[in-house]
Each structure stands twice: as C-alpha cells, then as structure tokens.
Amino acid sequence: MEHMTIYLLLATAFGLFMAWGIGANDVANAMATSIGSKALTIKQAIVIAAIFEFAGAVLAGGEVTSTIRKGMVDSEAFVQSPELLVFGMLAALAAAGTWLFIASRKGWPVSTTHSIVGAIVGFAAVGLGGDAVKWGKVGAIVASWVISPLTAGIFAFLIFTSIQKLILTRSDPIERAQRYAPVYIFLTVFLISLVTLFKGLKHVGLEVTTVQAYAGSALFAAIIAFVGRYFVMRIKVDKNAEKKFHYATVEKVFALLMVITASAMAFAHGSNDVANAIGPVAAIVSIVQTGAVAQKAALPLWILVLGGFGIVIGLATYGRRVITTVGSHITSLTPSRGFSAELAAAFTIVFASGTGMPVSTTHVLVGAVLGVGMARGISAINLGVVGRIFLSWVITIPAGAMLSIVFFFILKAIFGS
Amino acid sequence: MGNYISKIFGASPVAPIQDHMELCYKAARELITFFEFVVADDWDKVVETRAKIVALENDADDAKKNIRMQLSKALFMPVARGDLLDLVLVQDKIPNLARDVSGLIVGREMRIPAAVQDLFIEFVKRNVDAAKGARKTIRELDELYETGFRGAEADLVIELIADLDQIENDTDALQMKLRRALFAIEQELEPIDVIFLYRVIETIGDIGDMAERIGRRLELLMTH
Q1: Residue B184 domain-assigned?
Q2: Are B153 and A378 inside 8 Å of each other by CB?
Q3: How near does any CA of chain A get to the CA of B85, in Å?
Q4: Which of A233, A213, A215 is nearest to A225 (CA)?
Q5: What is the CATH number of the domain that holds B48?
Q6: Does pTM top 0.90 for this prediction?
C-alpha cells in the first residue's frame, strides 16, 4: 500500500489527539461527583483517574474498541479499495477531534462517543453507500444510548433507597454505616471485576472460565472489602461537625467508600471511551499491515496501551484545570448520593464495555444522578441543563458526520487515485 | 470547557431558608429587650431597639427575595417549589409582626400599665420562645433532606413540632390571662390607649401563631 507510513503517522497523531482530548475534558465529567461531594481532593482524583483510566482502557477496553474498529462498517464493501477505509477512519478521527475542540471551546455538551459513531457512520454511508454500514449494529448502539442512562437511573435509585432504608433513616446511622460499608465495597468491586473478567481480559490474552471469573471477583472483592472495613472502623465521630450536621460522620464513611467508586468510575470511563480514540487507529493499523480489515483479526494490545497513555497525558497536562472548574460548580452533593450515582454509573458503563457497546459516559452519569433525584436524594436538579445534555446528540451526530464526510473527501482527493 | 455535568446540580435552598429563619427569630427576640426598655421608660433605647428590628426585617425581606429568585421552575426537587415558598412566606411574617408592634408602640408613645407589666413581659417572652422553637425545627431541615424526610430524623422533628405546639398553647393561655388582667383595669385608662394595647397584645400573640404554622408547614413537607 502506498503512503503507508503517512497513514500510520496521521493515525497515531489523530488518535493521540483524540485520547488527549478525552483525558483533558471528559475525565473531569466522570470524576465530577467525587470532587463535588468533597470526597476526594483534586490531587487524589487525578491520581486515581490516571491509574484507573489506564487500567480500564487496557484491561476492559477491548470489546468496545473492536466495535468501533470493525463492528459498524462492513469491510466487504472495502475489499476493492481498502485505502478508502483508511481515509474514512482518519476522517472520522479528525472530525471527532475537531468537534470536541469546537464544542468544548463554546461550552456545549459534547459526547466523544456520539461524535465518533456519527463520524464513522457518516463517512461510510456517504463515502461509500448505505451498504457499507452494518445498520443492525448501529441500531443496537443507538438503543444502548437510550437504555444505559435508564438502567443506571434505576440502579442508582435502588442503591440510594437501600442506603436510606438500611442506614440514613435509622436511629443508629453511624454504627450501621460502618457495618454495611464493607458490603457496599464488596458489591462494587465484585460487579466491576466480574464484568471485566468475563469480557475484558480476552484482549490482554487471558482466558477465564465462568467459575474462575466468579471466584476471582469474589476473592478480590472480599480482600478490598476487608481493607476498606479497617479504614471505615477507624473513622472517629467528629463532635463539632456532628453539632452542625448530625450526619457528618455517616457521610464521612461514604466519602471513604467514594474512593472505591471513583476508581470504578475512572476504570469504567477508560474502558468505554478509549475506543473513541483508538478504535479507528486500530482499523487503520490493521488495513495498513494486512491490506484489509480482517473480521477475525485480534486487537493488538499495544493499541489499547497507546490509548490509555494518551488519556493519562491529557489528564495530566490539562485535566487539572477542568476538574477544578467542575468541582467548584457543585455545592451540595453529599457522599451518600455521589456514591449511589457512581456505583450505578460505573457498573452500567463497564457492563456496556463488556458487551462492546460504546455509550456516552456522561449520559449514563446524568441518568444515575436523576435516579438518585427520584429517590428524593438531590436537593435541586436543573432540568434545563439535563435536557440540553440529553438532546446534545441531535447536534453532535450530524456535526460529526458532516465533518467526517468533508475530511473523507479531502483525504480522498489528496491521497486517492 | 465542556465541563457541564456539574451544572445539572442546582443550588440547594436549604441553607438560605435556614439563614432566613435565623433573621426572623432574631427580629422577634429583640422584642424582649424592646419591651423591657418600654417598661423602664428608657425611650432612647426603645427607639434604638426598634431600629434594630427594622434592620433585621429588611434583611429578612432581602433573603426571602433571593430564595424566590433562586427557586426557578426548572428545578427538580424532593420538595415542591410551592411548599418551600409558602414556608418562607410564613417565616417572613414574624419579623413583620415584630416591626408592626414596635412601630405602634413608638408611634403612639405607648406605655404598659404597671399592673400588667410582669404578665406582659412574660407573654412576650413566651411568644419569642415559640419563635425559637420554630427555629429549632427549621434547623433540622438539612438533616430532613439528608434522610429523605423519613425515619428517625422525621420522628425527631415531629417531636420538636409537638413541643412547639405546647409552647403555642402556653402563649394562648397567657394571652387570655393578660386580657383578663387588662379588662380588670381598663376603666381607669384612656379608652384609645386601651384599644391599641389590646391590638398590641393580639399582634404579639400572632408571633406565636406564626411559629406554630411554621411547624405545620414543615409537617406538610415531610408527608408529601
């Protein structure tokens, strides 16, 4: 294939740029509830995010990346001219990156997932024709965009209601909080590990049986729960804080739990969003190396590592500023609420990652927050902003698609014959 | 820069409502020293205290307006916007009553007849106790939000409201006693002064009533 090196260079550059953008902008949204509830300091949030975004990307990002790489586009249609697929994927990356840049600047809601999916469907449908798109899969993806916030909302509602019933409404909330905290820790770690072991590790080269998955998850969760219990029992009642707010100590317990859920959120976000940057790169690499996007070809690990790396760099260089701004806007979110929303969101996202569905992590988190709100948990939710976020796909999908089509034809003109 | 998820969280009305109640209680509390100065015939101090009450009432008004502006219709809350606004409205009546009473006394240079002075001061104090009780219940608002208006905290608040009702009953009993005492001596006093004195007693009694209504409103919030 001609121009192989240029394509690879462009792919890496655009891919890293996308990943950087995700790290700089999107991670802040995933960590928003942890910062806003004052459960973590900015510094702690960044460290946790850096470690777990990377882990999530590498250990659990394979399925979604595969979907972006070859799940939406019918490679049969490109057999004659595989370089068109290269142009298309490059165009999609450039489009999504550009849209991320523009919308962030303007302060509009932007979902990296919506952008890249819109861009890919855009160039494939227009650049090559409707047959080039696997509409069944695309339909399933769109369905997941509706289902994921809903399930996160229901799950968050149930979790928060359980916290209310078991802890908050009782006359001995502090003791109960300390008693049940390890259970909640176990639940969080078990669920996230289970999905990861079942689906995620394939791409790292590990095959795990069902029994091993359950047993491994349970063991890991038990260990973390045990360690967590030690720290929870060490929490002392702060008499002064209790005077101002009788539930200050209970919320301290949940602030500790949020360290776990913040890690889970970062892991989940990494697992789902790394694909937005690195899926197209994987497709390009595959074509350039073999001349076609073989449906059965395995996803090379180094691509996931590259994506994870890009996200962490973005977070380290620019993310701090964004996270600080995000945290300063939230004034009254208590840790028990943040915990409920994060656990629900993290599990939903990791589950989506496990099934290869690219979802908008922000929509899922908003859905989870609404779920807690329905349980009378949040003092005030601005429905206007919620509506704007949920409707953002109306602009993002066409914008991503149009930009992608434009870039596609430009690339075709420059490199095509 | 795309950091919009934090914007879905609106400002909580709880702290502003609690702060407003503090101001309302403080305005009512000034009435004790106000009437002690009236009884001591220290008219300079009387006017000074009235100025304090007016200042507190103005601050309460500003706080009330801010709360109204903050509670936009687009907010999804565990408590209905109307219920919260009604609560603030009732709270706000207390400093208004304090202002009315003090204005009447200062404007007409009213004195309290010696025979009923002790009973009168006791009456004022008990009504301020009612306002204090109302403040105590409103101080639990953040804890009520925390627990979702159910459970052990809700039971605690219901007890506090019951205590508040008890205090208000006391003020009703005291008011009857005071009016009886005034009735016994009213023939010896200037008729117009007596009429206004009855009005002052009634208005002070309204403070206790408003305090009880605050408790009722809070109960409503919990049961919705």
Answers
A1: yes
A2: no
A3: 14
A4: A233
A5: 1.20.58.220
A6: yes
